[in-house]
Amino acid sequence: MVEWDKDFHERTGKWRPLVEWKNKEGKINPDHPEYEKRLKNSMKKINPFCESCDTTYNLAEPCIHHLPDGYKNDMRRKAYFKKMAEKKSDDTNAKQGSL
């Protein structure tokens, strides 16, 4: 049996079949397999400016200064700080060697 979009009917007076990735109330279903893909695409459209990097970034792939919490982002942040520490130590070693 076809489920109908009641919210659309209330707004427009027309009936249309309910979209698979929405539930009966018209809310987006986060358990749907296509939800993550749609979320990523919508986040790619938002491009704020990072003052630390002096560039823009999108919310799907944020710059290192705007990473949200999470294991993957913690690993990315640790790798960045490790790289910066190595770069800083290389710079100090180069200065000491030239004196």
Describe the structure.
By secondary structure, the protein is mainly α. It has a domain at 67-99. It has helices at 6-12, 35-44, 71-98, and strands at 49-50, 55-56. The chain has a two-stranded antiparallel sheet with strand order 1-2. The mean pLDDT is 82.
Mean pLDDT: 82
Q: Please, what is the oligomeric state? A: single chain
Report the span from N to C terminus. 82 Å
Number of helices, where a helix is a run of at least 4 consecutive DSSP H or I residues: 3
**Biggest beta sheet summary:** 2 strands, antiparallel
List how many beta strands DSSP finds. Answer: 2
Structural class: mainly alpha
Radius of gyration: 23 Å
Q: Describe the global form.
A: elongated
Following the backbone from N to C, one meets helices and strands in this order, namely HHEEH
Sheet-strand content, in percent, reads under 5%
Kindly state the percentage of residues in helix.
40-55%
Query: If strands are numbered along the chain, what order do they take across the biggest sheet?
Result: 1-2
Quick structural summary:
The chain is mostly helical and 99 residues long. Helix content is 45%, strand content 4%. The chain has a domain of 33 residues.
What's the layout of helices and strands?
Blueprint: H1 6-12, H2 35-44, E1 49-50, E2 55-56, H3 71-98
Antiparallel strand pairs: 1-2
What key phrases describe this protein's structure?
single chain; mainly alpha; two-stranded antiparallel sheet; 3 helices; 45% helix
